[in-house]
Amino acid sequence: MTPAHVHPSGPGPASLAAAATALSAVAVYLLAAARLRRRGDAWPPARDVCFAAGGAALAAAALVAPPGGPFTAHMARHLAVGMAAPLLLVLARPLTLALRLLRPGPVRRTLLAAAHSRPAGWLVCPPVAAVLDVGGLWLLYRTPLWAAVHGRPVLDAAVHLHVLAAGLLFTFAVCRLDPVRRRWGLLPRGAALLGAGAAHAVLAKSLWASPPPGTGFAPADLRTGARLMYYGGDLVEIALALVLAVQWYAAGGRALARGRRPSPAVRMSVRASGGYAKDTTREGVAQRSAGAGR
């Protein structure tokens, strides 16, 4: 039986390359944000912090050995790579930053065309993104896949890349902060989050009972890792729910403001009357007629 993915001699070349890629992406983002500000455009510093924290989480997952047994350490990396880092990176709105920084031209048109393409629209469809994310985890932990990739660095790197990409797609589909082809409403995004959260919790409970096929872990290590997956996943999903709640509140405020905005006919009446709104309803006309007769 395969005990775990343990690297006692330290991080290998693949881990070093992953960490260097993550930190390079952070440097590029921060330089782009600084250039945008020098140009006179506003860009909230909180987004810089989110992207830097997400990149640091990816680098730490590649380089640092978390405490605990091998399964607990693996699950800590899973939460960092597949859930926490994607949330931080998506909150930073990297696509919006790129589109605002790039000048009109072929590069910007290509990027915008890719974001508005039909395949991109399907990938960030909330139910599709949820299946790709949680379905991949079920395939990894409830089939012999994890045992099969052990000792094969290329396959192991491909699995971790899939976990990151699927986590980014799902988080992007739920938050929907950057411009894409279709903007799904709060209901389908909330339903996808609820369904994915339930499937993730059931998977964590199943790992509490039995390890992935073909692997062997100490019962205490297995249960600690499963507990970390369960409660750590809940924390990230609560954060995603808060993003949806903020968007719902903001949408309600915009709708209320639109409802209080005077109609074009009323605005024309205000301008015609020298700045005073004229009530054109039947009651308003009757009151003005009564006042004129006094």
Structure notes:
By secondary structure, the chain is mainly alpha-helical. The protein has one domain. The chain is built from 13 helices and no strands. The chain has helices at residues 13-38, 45-63, 70-91, 94-101, 106-115, 118-123, 126-141, 145-149, 153-175, 186-209, 219-260, 264-272, 282-293. The radius of gyration is 26 Å and the shape is globular. The protein starts with 12 loop residues before the first helix and ends with a helix. The relative contact order is 0.11. The model is unreliable at 1-9 (pLDDT under 50).
Key words describing this protein structure:
294 residues; mainly alpha; 76% helix; disordered N terminus
Largest sheet geometry: none
β-strand percent reads: under 5%
**Counting H and I runs of at least 4 residues, what is the number of helices?**
13
Sum up the overall morphology in one term.
globular
Whole-number average pLDDT?
84
Sequence stretches where pLDDT stays below 50 over 5 or more residues: 1-9
Helix content: over 70%
Distance between the termini: 99 Å
Give the C-alpha Rg: 26 Å
Number of domains: 1
Secondary structure category: mainly alpha
Helices and strands, in N-to-C order? HHHHHHHHHHHHH
Write down how many β-strands occur, each being a DSSP E stretch of 2 or more residues.
0
Subcellular location: Cell membrane
Keywords: Cell membrane, Membrane, Transmembrane, Transmembrane helix
Pfam family, one: Caa3_CtaG
Protein name: Cytochrome c oxidase assembly protein
